[in-house]
Please model this.
Amino acid sequence: MSRKPMVRPGGRSARVQQSVHQAVHELTAECGRDALTVPLVAARAGVTPSTVYRRWGDLQELLSDVALERLRPEAPPADYGDLSADLTAWAQEFLEEMSSPTGRAYIRDALLGDPDGANAGQCSAYAADQIDLILTRARARGQEAPAVETVIDRIVAPMMYRILFRPGALRAPYARQLVSNLLGERAG
Model:
């Protein structure tokens, strides 16, 4: 069964989504992700397993939806008054969050239950929106700023590659260097 597009529903549907997501978080903390089953999640959420199957299709698509919600930024990026400072702070925070064990698990879940690529697109849009805000603020201050896609290609893409395929010790200096390389090339 293919998952229906997830929207921010209202009323009962919103309550079901919230209770099922909460059940996933609680059960993951209590017994680990590998112990999760649709019946276990449904019982904790106070819904029937058929409700979960009808809405999400299977456990992997449910975990993907939960991960996508957790990957959504909670606040706009900080404004330090300078493009380099803003982009560096954002890149360091992005790297720290995404490269953590929890971040990696959310990335994995978001992509595994994503047969049509919608979640990957949504995750990309989250990053692009945050970057666009940083660049728009810089331009409003009179600073020259690269295009959003350039930042994605030169900062986000290398970090995601490392997070997914070369998960060694990723630290803030790596994020700072990517930003410095991008902005230094623009100045030169």
Observations:
- The chain has two domains: 11-57, 75-187.
- The radius of gyration is 19 Å.
- Residues 1-7 have pLDDT under 50 and may be disordered.
